[in-house]
Amino acid sequence: MNQPNSRRQFFAGAAASVAGLAVARSAFAGLPEPVIQTSGSMAPPLVPQTGRPYNPVVTLNGWTLPWRMNNNVKEFHLVAEPVVREVSKGFKVNMWGYNGQSPGPTIEVVEGDRVRIFVTNKLPEHTSVHWHGQRLPNGMDGVSGLNQRAIPVGKTYVYEFVARRPGTFMYHPHADEMTQMAMGMMGMWVTHPKAKHPHIAEVDRDFCFMLNAFDVEPGSRTPMVNTMTDFNIWCWNSRVFPDIDTLNVRLNDKVRIRVGNLTMTNHPIHLHGHEFEVTGTDGGPTPPGSRWPEVTTDVAVGQMRQIELLADEEGDWAMHCHKSHHTMNAMGHAVPTMIGIDHRGIVAKINKVAPDYMVMGERGMADMGEMEMQIPDNTAPMMTGTGQYGALEMGGMFNVFKVRKDQKQGDYSDPGAYRHPPGTSAFEYAGVLPEAARFQSEVKAGGQPVPGLNNPLSGKVEKQSPVNATAVKPKGPGKH
Length: 480
Ligand SMILES: [Cu+2]
Prior knowledge:
Elements: H1 6-12, H2 15-24, E1 58-59, E2 68-70, E3 73-88, E4 91-98, E5 107-110, E6 114-121, E7 130-132, E8 156-162, E9 167-172, H3 177-182, E10 187-192, E11 205-214, E12 233-236, E13 247-250, E14 253-261, E15 267-271, E16 277-281, E17 284-285, E18 296-299, E19 304-311, E20 315-321, H4 346-353, H5 367-371, E21 384-387, E22 390-394, E23 398-404, H6 437-444
Parallel strand pairs: 1-11, 3-6, 5-10, 11-14, 13-23
Antiparallel strand pairs: 2-3, 3-4, 6-8, 7-9, 9-10, 11-12, 14-19, 15-18, 15-20, 16-17, 16-19, 20-23, 21-22
Protein backbone atom coordinates (compact mmCIF):
# COMPACT_ATOMS: atom_id res chain seq x y z
CA MET A 1 0.00 0.00 0.00
CA ASN A 2 1.30 3.36 -0.87
CA GLN A 3 1.37 6.23 1.51
CA PRO A 4 0.27 9.40 -0.21
CA ASN A 5 2.80 12.14 -0.72
CA SER A 6 2.94 15.04 1.65
CA ARG A 7 0.61 17.28 -0.30
CA ARG A 8 -1.93 14.50 -0.42
CA GLN A 9 -1.62 13.93 3.31
CA PHE A 10 -2.14 17.62 3.78
CA PHE A 11 -5.44 17.34 1.99
CA ALA A 12 -6.59 13.97 3.33
CA GLY A 13 -5.36 13.93 6.90
CA ALA A 14 -5.70 17.59 7.67
CA ALA A 15 -8.79 18.16 5.60
CA ALA A 16 -10.61 19.74 8.53
CA SER A 17 -7.98 22.42 8.91
CA VAL A 18 -7.92 22.87 5.14
CA ALA A 19 -11.62 23.58 5.28
CA GLY A 20 -10.97 26.13 8.02
CA LEU A 21 -8.27 27.68 5.93
CA ALA A 22 -10.69 27.79 3.03
CA VAL A 23 -13.06 30.02 4.95
CA ALA A 24 -10.21 32.23 6.16
CA ARG A 25 -9.15 32.89 2.60
CA SER A 26 -12.76 33.92 2.00
CA ALA A 27 -12.99 34.63 -1.71
CA PHE A 28 -10.80 31.63 -2.50
CA ALA A 29 -10.33 33.08 -5.91
CA GLY A 30 -7.35 30.85 -6.57
CA LEU A 31 -7.44 27.31 -7.87
CA PRO A 32 -7.25 24.47 -5.39
CA GLU A 33 -3.68 23.21 -5.43
CA PRO A 34 -3.63 20.10 -7.66
CA VAL A 35 -2.75 16.91 -5.82
CA ILE A 36 -0.33 14.81 -7.84
CA GLN A 37 0.19 11.10 -7.25
CA THR A 38 3.69 9.94 -8.15
CA SER A 39 3.21 6.26 -7.25
CA GLY A 40 1.18 3.62 -9.13
CA SER A 41 0.45 1.64 -5.94
CA MET A 42 -2.93 1.40 -4.26
CA ALA A 43 -3.58 4.26 -1.85
CA PRO A 44 -5.56 3.50 1.31
CA PRO A 45 -9.25 4.46 1.22
CA LEU A 46 -9.69 8.22 1.60
CA VAL A 47 -11.94 8.60 4.63
CA PRO A 48 -13.88 11.86 4.24
CA GLN A 49 -12.98 14.54 6.79
CA THR A 50 -15.33 17.15 5.34
CA GLY A 51 -18.77 17.00 3.78
CA ARG A 52 -21.28 14.18 4.27
CA PRO A 53 -19.85 10.88 5.58
CA TYR A 54 -19.67 7.78 3.37
CA ASN A 55 -17.78 4.48 3.12
CA PRO A 56 -14.91 5.09 0.69
CA VAL A 57 -13.85 2.80 -2.15
CA VAL A 58 -10.35 1.59 -2.95
CA THR A 59 -9.01 1.83 -6.50
CA LEU A 60 -6.68 -0.96 -7.69
CA ASN A 61 -3.26 0.62 -8.26
CA GLY A 62 -4.97 3.97 -7.85
CA TRP A 63 -6.23 6.61 -5.48
CA THR A 64 -9.07 9.01 -4.71
CA LEU A 65 -8.70 12.73 -5.43
CA PRO A 66 -8.83 14.91 -2.29
CA TRP A 67 -11.06 17.98 -2.39
CA ARG A 68 -11.52 21.17 -0.50
CA MET A 69 -14.85 22.53 0.73
CA ASN A 70 -15.62 26.06 -0.41
CA ASN A 71 -18.94 27.39 0.88
CA ASN A 72 -20.51 23.93 0.73
CA VAL A 73 -19.13 23.22 -2.72
CA LYS A 74 -16.70 20.30 -3.13
CA GLU A 75 -13.81 21.60 -5.23
CA PHE A 76 -11.50 19.26 -7.14
CA HIS A 77 -8.60 20.08 -9.44
CA LEU A 78 -7.84 17.72 -12.33
CA VAL A 79 -4.71 18.28 -14.39
CA ALA A 80 -4.71 16.63 -17.82
CA GLU A 81 -1.05 15.89 -18.56
CA PRO A 82 1.49 13.47 -20.04
CA VAL A 83 2.49 10.84 -17.46
CA VAL A 84 4.73 7.79 -17.31
CA ARG A 85 2.84 4.74 -16.02
CA GLU A 86 4.60 1.59 -14.89
CA VAL A 87 2.31 -1.05 -16.46
CA SER A 88 4.28 -3.88 -14.86
CA LYS A 89 7.60 -4.02 -13.08
CA GLY A 90 10.13 -2.17 -15.25
CA PHE A 91 7.69 -1.73 -18.18
CA LYS A 92 7.09 2.00 -18.46
CA VAL A 93 4.71 3.54 -20.95
CA ASN A 94 4.35 7.17 -21.98
CA MET A 95 0.67 7.88 -21.41
CA TRP A 96 -1.63 10.83 -21.03
CA GLY A 97 -3.59 10.94 -17.79
CA TYR A 98 -4.61 13.10 -14.88
CA ASN A 99 -2.63 14.29 -11.84
CA GLY A 100 0.39 12.10 -12.44
CA GLN A 101 -1.28 8.81 -13.31
CA SER A 102 -3.32 6.87 -15.85
CA PRO A 103 -6.11 6.29 -15.09
CA GLY A 104 -6.75 9.53 -13.29
CA PRO A 105 -7.79 9.56 -9.64
CA THR A 106 -11.20 8.27 -8.60
CA ILE A 107 -13.60 11.07 -7.70
CA GLU A 108 -15.88 10.24 -4.75
CA VAL A 109 -18.82 12.44 -3.81
CA VAL A 110 -22.19 12.07 -2.12
CA GLU A 111 -25.62 12.26 -3.73
CA GLY A 112 -26.75 15.89 -3.55
CA ASP A 113 -23.21 17.33 -3.36
CA ARG A 114 -22.55 20.46 -5.40
CA VAL A 115 -19.28 19.70 -7.16
CA ARG A 116 -16.87 22.13 -8.85
CA ILE A 117 -14.07 20.61 -10.90
CA PHE A 118 -11.23 22.75 -12.23
CA VAL A 119 -9.63 21.09 -15.25
CA THR A 120 -6.21 22.38 -16.29
CA ASN A 121 -4.92 21.30 -19.69
CA LYS A 122 -1.19 20.54 -19.74
CA LEU A 123 -1.43 18.28 -22.80
CA PRO A 124 0.10 19.28 -26.14
CA GLU A 125 -3.43 19.60 -27.61
CA HIS A 126 -6.87 20.71 -26.52
CA THR A 127 -9.09 18.49 -24.39
CA SER A 128 -12.40 18.37 -22.46
CA VAL A 129 -13.94 16.15 -19.81
CA HIS A 130 -17.19 14.23 -20.22
CA TRP A 131 -18.80 13.05 -16.96
CA HIS A 132 -20.10 9.69 -18.22
CA GLY A 133 -23.48 8.70 -16.78
CA GLN A 134 -24.18 11.88 -14.82
CA ARG A 135 -27.37 13.91 -14.79
CA LEU A 136 -26.16 17.47 -15.31
CA PRO A 137 -26.85 20.69 -17.20
CA ASN A 138 -26.19 20.20 -20.91
CA GLY A 139 -23.39 22.77 -20.94
CA MET A 140 -21.46 20.70 -18.37
CA ASP A 141 -21.52 17.46 -20.38
CA GLY A 142 -18.09 18.07 -21.89
CA VAL A 143 -18.52 17.25 -25.59
CA SER A 144 -16.18 19.72 -27.26
CA GLY A 145 -17.82 21.64 -30.08
CA LEU A 146 -21.30 20.54 -28.94
CA ASN A 147 -21.50 21.59 -25.29
CA GLN A 148 -18.39 23.78 -24.87
CA ARG A 149 -15.28 25.01 -26.61
CA ALA A 150 -12.43 22.53 -26.13
CA ILE A 151 -10.08 23.55 -23.32
CA PRO A 152 -7.06 25.07 -25.09
CA VAL A 153 -3.51 24.08 -24.14
CA GLY A 154 -2.49 25.78 -20.91
CA LYS A 155 -6.03 26.89 -19.95
CA THR A 156 -8.25 25.87 -17.04
CA TYR A 157 -12.01 25.32 -17.37
CA VAL A 158 -14.51 24.91 -14.56
CA TYR A 159 -17.29 22.31 -14.47
CA GLU A 160 -19.97 22.62 -11.83
CA PHE A 161 -23.06 20.53 -11.16
CA VAL A 162 -24.95 18.67 -8.46
CA ALA A 163 -24.26 14.92 -8.21
CA ARG A 164 -27.93 13.99 -8.51
CA ARG A 165 -27.87 10.25 -8.81
CA PRO A 166 -25.91 7.71 -6.68
CA GLY A 167 -23.91 5.15 -8.62
CA THR A 168 -20.71 4.26 -10.42
CA PHE A 169 -19.63 6.49 -13.29
CA MET A 170 -16.55 7.40 -15.34
CA TYR A 171 -14.91 10.46 -16.79
CA HIS A 172 -12.95 10.77 -20.01
CA PRO A 173 -12.13 13.35 -22.71
CA HIS A 174 -14.65 14.18 -25.43
CA ALA A 175 -12.09 15.95 -27.62
CA ASP A 176 -9.81 13.95 -29.93
CA GLU A 177 -11.28 11.04 -28.02
CA MET A 178 -9.65 8.25 -29.98
CA THR A 179 -6.15 9.54 -29.32
CA GLN A 180 -6.71 10.66 -25.76
CA MET A 181 -8.34 7.44 -24.57
CA ALA A 182 -5.77 5.31 -26.46
CA MET A 183 -3.19 7.23 -24.43
CA GLY A 184 -4.89 6.36 -21.13
CA MET A 185 -7.10 9.35 -20.26
CA MET A 186 -9.95 8.11 -18.07
CA GLY A 187 -10.99 7.76 -14.48
CA MET A 188 -13.80 6.58 -12.22
CA TRP A 189 -16.44 8.51 -10.38
CA VAL A 190 -18.44 7.15 -7.44
CA THR A 191 -21.49 8.97 -6.07
CA HIS A 192 -22.36 7.47 -2.68
CA PRO A 193 -25.99 7.56 -1.48
CA LYS A 194 -26.74 10.34 1.00
CA ALA A 195 -28.86 8.03 3.19
CA LYS A 196 -29.76 4.35 3.34
CA HIS A 197 -30.88 3.50 -0.19
CA PRO A 198 -33.29 0.59 -0.82
CA HIS A 199 -31.21 -0.65 -3.79
CA ILE A 200 -27.73 0.06 -2.46
CA ALA A 201 -26.33 -2.37 0.12
CA GLU A 202 -23.82 -1.46 2.74
CA VAL A 203 -20.66 -3.45 2.12
CA ASP A 204 -17.42 -4.25 3.94
CA ARG A 205 -15.15 -3.78 0.91
CA ASP A 206 -15.70 -1.62 -2.14
CA PHE A 207 -13.23 -1.93 -5.04
CA CYS A 208 -13.12 -0.14 -8.37
CA PHE A 209 -11.07 -0.28 -11.54
CA MET A 210 -11.19 0.56 -15.26
CA LEU A 211 -10.61 -1.91 -18.09
CA ASN A 212 -8.21 -0.29 -20.55
CA ALA A 213 -5.98 -1.44 -23.40
CA PHE A 214 -2.90 -0.18 -25.20
CA ASP A 215 -0.93 -1.05 -28.29
CA VAL A 216 2.72 -0.75 -27.34
CA GLU A 217 5.23 -2.34 -29.71
CA PRO A 218 7.70 -4.39 -27.67
CA GLY A 219 10.74 -2.25 -27.03
CA SER A 220 8.89 1.04 -27.50
CA ARG A 221 7.35 3.29 -24.85
CA THR A 222 4.44 5.07 -26.52
CA PRO A 223 1.06 3.50 -27.42
CA MET A 224 0.05 3.47 -31.10
CA VAL A 225 -3.10 5.57 -31.07
CA ASN A 226 -4.50 4.55 -34.48
CA THR A 227 -4.91 0.91 -33.49
CA MET A 228 -8.57 -0.08 -33.74
CA THR A 229 -8.82 -3.63 -32.35
CA ASP A 230 -5.37 -5.19 -32.32
CA PHE A 231 -4.21 -4.10 -28.87
CA ASN A 232 -1.47 -6.07 -27.11
CA ILE A 233 -1.53 -4.74 -23.53
CA TRP A 234 -4.81 -5.57 -21.70
CA CYS A 235 -5.03 -3.73 -18.41
CA TRP A 236 -6.96 -3.17 -15.23
CA ASN A 237 -6.21 0.42 -14.33
CA SER A 238 -3.25 0.55 -16.73
CA ARG A 239 -1.59 -2.46 -15.06
CA VAL A 240 -1.16 -6.10 -16.15
CA PHE A 241 -0.98 -9.31 -14.11
CA PRO A 242 0.99 -10.13 -11.99
CA ASP A 243 1.50 -6.46 -11.13
CA ILE A 244 -2.17 -5.58 -10.48
CA ASP A 245 -3.19 -5.15 -6.83
CA THR A 246 -5.01 -8.31 -5.72
CA LEU A 247 -8.49 -7.97 -4.17
CA ASN A 248 -7.92 -8.96 -0.54
CA VAL A 249 -10.96 -9.50 1.66
CA ARG A 250 -11.96 -11.06 4.97
CA LEU A 251 -14.03 -14.28 5.04
CA ASN A 252 -17.76 -13.44 4.99
CA ASP A 253 -17.19 -9.85 3.90
CA LYS A 254 -19.89 -8.36 1.70
CA VAL A 255 -17.91 -7.15 -1.30
CA ARG A 256 -18.73 -4.68 -4.07
CA ILE A 257 -16.60 -4.43 -7.21
CA ARG A 258 -17.15 -1.61 -9.71
CA VAL A 259 -15.77 -2.10 -13.24
CA GLY A 260 -15.77 0.35 -16.15
CA ASN A 261 -14.77 -0.45 -19.73
CA LEU A 262 -13.12 2.12 -22.02
CA THR A 263 -11.31 -0.32 -24.31
CA MET A 264 -12.44 -1.05 -27.89
CA THR A 265 -14.04 -4.42 -27.09
CA ASN A 266 -16.18 -6.14 -24.45
CA HIS A 267 -14.74 -8.09 -21.52
CA PRO A 268 -16.58 -10.98 -19.84
CA ILE A 269 -15.34 -10.64 -16.27
CA HIS A 270 -15.33 -13.98 -14.48
CA LEU A 271 -14.94 -14.74 -10.77
CA HIS A 272 -14.10 -18.20 -9.46
CA GLY A 273 -15.58 -19.86 -6.38
CA HIS A 274 -18.52 -17.48 -5.76
CA GLU A 275 -21.73 -16.23 -7.36
CA PHE A 276 -22.39 -12.52 -7.65
CA GLU A 277 -25.19 -10.22 -8.73
CA VAL A 278 -25.00 -7.14 -10.92
CA THR A 279 -26.28 -4.48 -8.55
CA GLY A 280 -25.62 -1.42 -10.66
CA THR A 281 -24.85 -0.07 -14.11
CA ASP A 282 -23.94 3.44 -15.26
CA GLY A 283 -27.69 3.97 -15.20
CA GLY A 284 -27.62 3.57 -11.42
CA PRO A 285 -28.50 0.79 -8.97
CA THR A 286 -30.48 -2.10 -10.47
CA PRO A 287 -33.82 -2.92 -8.80
CA PRO A 288 -33.33 -6.05 -6.63
CA GLY A 289 -36.10 -7.89 -8.56
CA SER A 290 -34.01 -7.65 -11.75
CA ARG A 291 -30.96 -9.41 -10.32
CA TRP A 292 -29.87 -13.04 -10.78
CA PRO A 293 -26.78 -15.01 -9.83
CA GLU A 294 -23.82 -15.01 -12.23
CA VAL A 295 -20.18 -16.02 -12.23
CA THR A 296 -19.35 -14.03 -15.37
CA THR A 297 -20.69 -10.69 -16.49
CA ASP A 298 -19.92 -9.04 -19.79
CA VAL A 299 -18.81 -5.44 -19.57
CA ALA A 300 -19.38 -3.85 -22.96
CA VAL A 301 -17.52 -0.81 -24.28
CA GLY A 302 -18.60 2.34 -22.50
CA GLN A 303 -20.36 0.39 -19.74
CA MET A 304 -20.04 0.16 -15.98
CA ARG A 305 -20.92 -2.98 -14.07
CA GLN A 306 -21.18 -3.02 -10.32
CA ILE A 307 -21.20 -6.52 -8.82
CA GLU A 308 -21.78 -7.71 -5.26
CA LEU A 309 -21.09 -10.97 -3.47
CA LEU A 310 -20.62 -12.61 -0.13
CA ALA A 311 -16.99 -13.77 0.13
CA ASP A 312 -17.79 -16.96 1.99
CA GLU A 313 -15.22 -19.35 0.49
CA GLU A 314 -11.64 -19.07 1.70
CA GLY A 315 -8.86 -19.26 -0.87
CA ASP A 316 -7.06 -17.63 -3.78
CA TRP A 317 -9.76 -17.31 -6.43
CA ALA A 318 -8.95 -16.28 -9.99
CA MET A 319 -10.81 -13.25 -11.32
CA HIS A 320 -10.21 -12.45 -14.95
CA CYS A 321 -11.49 -11.51 -18.38
CA HIS A 322 -12.68 -14.74 -20.01
CA LYS A 323 -11.32 -13.83 -23.45
CA SER A 324 -8.19 -15.95 -23.24
CA HIS A 325 -6.15 -13.58 -25.40
CA HIS A 326 -6.86 -10.80 -22.91
CA THR A 327 -5.01 -12.68 -20.17
CA MET A 328 -1.84 -12.50 -22.23
CA ASN A 329 0.62 -9.68 -22.67
CA ALA A 330 2.50 -8.75 -25.85
CA MET A 331 2.90 -11.88 -27.97
CA GLY A 332 3.85 -12.97 -31.46
CA HIS A 333 0.66 -13.41 -33.47
CA ALA A 334 2.63 -14.61 -36.46
CA VAL A 335 3.78 -17.71 -34.58
CA PRO A 336 2.29 -20.73 -36.43
CA THR A 337 0.35 -23.34 -34.44
CA MET A 338 2.77 -26.23 -33.91
CA ILE A 339 0.65 -28.46 -31.69
CA GLY A 340 0.94 -32.09 -32.77
CA ILE A 341 4.03 -31.61 -34.92
CA ASP A 342 6.86 -33.73 -33.61
CA HIS A 343 10.19 -31.96 -33.90
CA ARG A 344 12.36 -34.71 -32.47
CA GLY A 345 15.66 -34.70 -34.31
CA ILE A 346 14.89 -31.63 -36.43
CA VAL A 347 16.02 -29.05 -33.90
CA ALA A 348 19.40 -30.73 -33.47
CA LYS A 349 19.93 -30.61 -37.25
CA ILE A 350 18.87 -26.96 -37.53
CA ASN A 351 21.02 -26.02 -34.55
CA LYS A 352 24.08 -26.94 -36.59
CA VAL A 353 23.44 -23.94 -38.84
CA ALA A 354 21.39 -21.74 -36.43
CA PRO A 355 22.59 -22.42 -32.89
CA ASP A 356 19.94 -20.28 -31.12
CA TYR A 357 17.03 -21.84 -33.03
CA MET A 358 14.16 -23.12 -30.90
CA VAL A 359 10.74 -24.53 -31.60
CA MET A 360 7.79 -22.82 -30.04
CA GLY A 361 4.55 -24.48 -29.12
CA GLU A 362 4.86 -28.06 -30.34
CA ARG A 363 3.30 -29.23 -27.06
CA GLY A 364 1.15 -26.12 -26.57
CA MET A 365 2.39 -22.74 -25.45
CA ALA A 366 2.80 -23.47 -21.74
CA ASP A 367 6.58 -23.68 -22.15
CA MET A 368 6.56 -19.92 -22.57
CA GLY A 369 5.28 -19.44 -19.04
CA GLU A 370 8.09 -21.58 -17.66
CA MET A 371 10.90 -20.26 -19.81
CA GLU A 372 10.41 -16.50 -19.40
CA MET A 373 12.15 -16.18 -22.78
CA GLN A 374 14.42 -13.28 -23.46
CA ILE A 375 12.26 -10.37 -24.62
CA PRO A 376 13.03 -6.89 -25.91
CA ASP A 377 13.53 -4.16 -23.33
CA ASN A 378 10.41 -2.42 -22.08
CA THR A 379 7.61 -4.88 -22.65
CA ALA A 380 5.78 -7.47 -20.55
CA PRO A 381 6.31 -11.21 -21.08
CA MET A 382 3.38 -12.87 -22.89
CA MET A 383 2.46 -15.20 -20.04
CA THR A 384 3.94 -14.85 -16.63
CA GLY A 385 3.12 -14.78 -12.93
CA THR A 386 4.14 -17.45 -10.44
CA GLY A 387 2.02 -18.97 -7.69
CA GLN A 388 2.96 -21.41 -4.95
CA TYR A 389 2.66 -24.30 -7.45
CA GLY A 390 4.60 -22.77 -10.33
CA ALA A 391 3.86 -20.68 -13.41
CA LEU A 392 0.31 -19.33 -13.86
CA GLU A 393 0.82 -18.74 -17.60
CA MET A 394 -1.31 -15.61 -17.35
CA GLY A 395 -0.89 -11.91 -17.92
CA GLY A 396 -3.05 -8.94 -18.83
CA MET A 397 -6.57 -8.88 -17.39
CA PHE A 398 -6.03 -11.54 -14.73
CA ASN A 399 -6.14 -11.07 -10.97
CA VAL A 400 -6.64 -12.94 -7.71
CA PHE A 401 -9.51 -12.52 -5.24
CA LYS A 402 -8.06 -13.49 -1.85
CA VAL A 403 -10.47 -14.52 0.88
CA ARG A 404 -8.95 -15.03 4.33
CA LYS A 405 -10.36 -15.72 7.79
CA ASP A 406 -7.73 -13.60 9.47
CA GLN A 407 -7.69 -10.59 7.09
CA LYS A 408 -8.37 -7.63 9.38
CA GLN A 409 -11.26 -5.28 8.76
CA GLY A 410 -10.03 -2.44 6.55
CA ASP A 411 -6.75 -4.24 5.79
CA TYR A 412 -6.19 -4.33 2.03
CA SER A 413 -2.64 -5.73 2.15
CA ASP A 414 -1.76 -8.93 0.29
CA PRO A 415 -1.99 -11.92 2.68
CA GLY A 416 0.32 -14.06 0.46
CA ALA A 417 -0.51 -17.50 -0.93
CA TYR A 418 -3.45 -19.45 0.50
CA ARG A 419 -2.53 -22.43 2.67
CA HIS A 420 -4.88 -25.22 1.59
CA PRO A 421 -6.11 -27.34 4.49
CA PRO A 422 -4.89 -30.95 4.22
CA GLY A 423 -7.13 -33.08 2.02
CA THR A 424 -8.64 -30.16 0.07
CA SER A 425 -6.26 -29.96 -2.90
CA ALA A 426 -6.16 -31.78 -6.24
CA PHE A 427 -3.60 -34.56 -6.07
CA GLU A 428 -1.83 -37.04 -8.30
CA TYR A 429 -3.45 -40.46 -8.81
CA ALA A 430 -1.01 -43.10 -7.54
CA GLY A 431 -2.73 -46.30 -8.72
CA VAL A 432 -2.15 -48.40 -11.83
CA LEU A 433 -2.83 -46.61 -15.11
CA PRO A 434 -3.85 -49.04 -17.91
CA GLU A 435 -2.99 -48.14 -21.51
CA ALA A 436 -5.99 -46.61 -23.26
CA ALA A 437 -7.69 -49.10 -25.62
CA ARG A 438 -7.29 -46.94 -28.74
CA PHE A 439 -3.50 -46.86 -28.28
CA GLN A 440 -3.31 -50.62 -27.70
CA SER A 441 -4.63 -51.26 -31.21
CA GLU A 442 -2.10 -48.84 -32.66
CA VAL A 443 0.79 -50.46 -30.81
CA LYS A 444 -0.35 -53.83 -32.16
CA ALA A 445 -0.26 -52.40 -35.69
CA GLY A 446 3.39 -51.51 -35.18
CA GLY A 447 3.13 -47.76 -34.69
CA GLN A 448 4.45 -45.58 -31.91
CA PRO A 449 1.61 -44.00 -29.94
CA VAL A 450 2.26 -40.29 -29.85
CA PRO A 451 -0.70 -38.49 -28.25
CA GLY A 452 -2.07 -35.81 -30.52
CA LEU A 453 -0.33 -37.21 -33.59
CA ASN A 454 -2.42 -40.29 -34.25
CA ASN A 455 -5.96 -40.37 -35.41
CA PRO A 456 -7.75 -42.74 -33.03
CA LEU A 457 -10.63 -43.16 -35.51
CA SER A 458 -8.45 -44.34 -38.38
CA GLY A 459 -7.22 -47.36 -36.45
CA LYS A 460 -3.74 -46.98 -37.91
CA VAL A 461 -0.78 -44.77 -37.35
CA GLU A 462 -0.41 -41.73 -39.54
CA LYS A 463 3.28 -41.68 -40.33
CA GLN A 464 4.65 -38.24 -39.69
CA SER A 465 6.75 -36.61 -42.35
CA PRO A 466 9.53 -34.34 -41.08
CA VAL A 467 9.31 -32.08 -44.14
CA ASN A 468 5.87 -30.93 -42.96
CA ALA A 469 7.38 -29.60 -39.76
CA THR A 470 7.64 -26.01 -40.85
CA ALA A 471 9.08 -24.15 -37.92
CA VAL A 472 10.18 -20.58 -37.70
CA LYS A 473 12.67 -18.99 -35.44
CA PRO A 474 10.61 -16.90 -33.06
CA LYS A 475 11.34 -13.21 -33.36
CA GLY A 476 10.20 -12.57 -29.81
CA PRO A 477 6.92 -11.08 -28.83
CA GLY A 478 5.23 -8.99 -31.43
CA LYS A 479 1.68 -7.83 -31.85
CA HIS A 480 -1.04 -9.66 -30.04
CU1 LIG B 1 -11.16 -9.02 -22.20
